[in-house]
Amino acid sequence: MSSKTIVILCIACAVVGIFLFKKNQKTSHQGYITIGILQTASHPALDQVREGFIHEMHRNAKEPIHFVVQNAEGSLSQAQAIASQFHSQRNIQAILAIGTPAVQAIARVEKNKPIFISAVSDPESLGILQSANICGTTDRINTEAQATLTSELLPHADTITILYSLGEANSQSMVHKIASSLQEKDIQTQFVGVYTESEIAAAVHTIARKSKAIIMPADNLLAGAMPLLVKETCKHQLPLIVSDPLCVFQGALAAIGADYQDLGQQTATLAKQVLFDNLSPETVGVQDPAQLHTVINQQTLDHLSLVPSEQVLSHSRLVTSEGVSHVR
Amino acid sequence: MSGELIEILQHILLQGLIYSLVVMGMYLSSRVIKFDDLTTEGSFGLGSVTATVAITLGLSPWLTLPLAMFSGAIAGAMTGILHTRFNINPLICGLIVTTALFSVCLKAAGANQSLYGYSTLFLPDASPLWILGVLLTLVTLLFWGLKWLLNSEVGLLLKALGTNPHMLTRLGKDIGSYKIFTLMISNSLIALSGSLLIQWNGFFSITGNIGTLIIGLIGLILSELIQRSFGIGLILGAIAYQALFSITIALQLDPVWNNLIKALLIVALIQLKPKKMIQESAIQRT
Q1: pLDDT tier, B274 (very low <50, low <70, confident <90, very high otherwise)
Q2: A-proximal residues of B, 72-111, CB under 8 Å
Q3: What pTM, to 2 d.p., does this model score?
């Protein structure tokens, strides 16, 4: 095949691709509101925020809304490129940034259009809140609630290991808060950090020898490796307490945290106040998750032969093999 | 519409200029002395950490530039020493240094450090013209510096090191020191690029260096479509890759397909290579 044929083939593929998948682009129509969505990476929780947001924005919308969805797939330079395009495109009136790096990228270039942020653990430390055009929600975990749940589920656990990934700002800022909340319940803590997915199995093996359970913050690396983490912890009979309810569906023992779909909807409610009620983002502000859910996995519970008290069960949702049930 | 286009072009140009330093650094190691250096991501991260720490300590942002270059030179020297003095395979040396530097970076700056509220070269409110001026001056200065170096006597020896290392031995020169020297220069450029990027972004993230190697390598290959020897093509190649990035995003397709389209665009671009150049490279090889 000559090189010319290859060029033509590639261009043809690209053109066909563009027409097949060109679903987002509608240049600015009168009466439309266009929101650019910049997502940090493909990740179940972040995807749910996006879906929750889009769903809630469409519900009872006074004007038709459409969305330009972009995903940086974990690359910072891609996030920057997307941010600068959102900034320069006149038809994009507002931006939803999901995840810390996306928020940082867009906050640097965009000073006028409203920016809605979501799934950021610690917006204060990013130094972006003095910008008047930013509002949204955090996915801050309530470490006291997490510690209480842990002591209720595992009354005999005296030493617990906090597992987190060393490369993530969101985890780093949370682990010490988790530790001090656990210490208030008279539980000893240890820290184990991993750099990559490949270290998880070895880390769990080490932890199994010296502590009774694992607790982890909202951590993208570990959440992404949840099936592996579940397999390893079950092998060593270690209870795994997390903050993201999604992980419980994948087999972690229990979680207390925000539902990311709800979080997206909460962000959309704030966005509507800005877009339709003409409130300034500054007055709307940044909120923590409105509601925390306790979710427990029945199968894992049986595997560990744990029997939680009635009091815990009364405010929890149980995940069984058939689905979710609200207990009593 | 034209305003939008100008802003996008401006972004491509600025980010391209920053990454052109990476391309130049990789040209030195992989093309001049034929050393496949994987230290790139490590030294890029180290440069950005050095700048972050210097800025949060309140040092003048201008001082971050020599500091970052110095840190990169150390990283390059480590790779060089591991290779020449401990006889370790070049690829492994780069990986070892990159792995080690991850810990150093994490300890020094944490996983994510915002630079809001600090004065950097480009923040809080630098005009695009100022940023462009600074970057153009820096890149031009370094470009001419390297050009001068490669045409000097040392430069000739470095080129000989890549094509015919025995010649150096016969001249009584130590191959190892010349390799270390080149890696130091190469990585100091890459680290400088890292320090500029975080000042432009306004924050440091431990994962910010991921992908640098690919950006540099593709930039280098695109640049060779324009010019095989050391030349302005290195800068244009880096800018061209950023343009590919932006084109893919501007298409506003389902983002799932972005990387596939980017790959297709690269293949298409590489096919544009003129016939003459292919013949030239064939002659060079014989």
Answers
A1: low
A2: 102, 106, 110-111
A3: 0.80
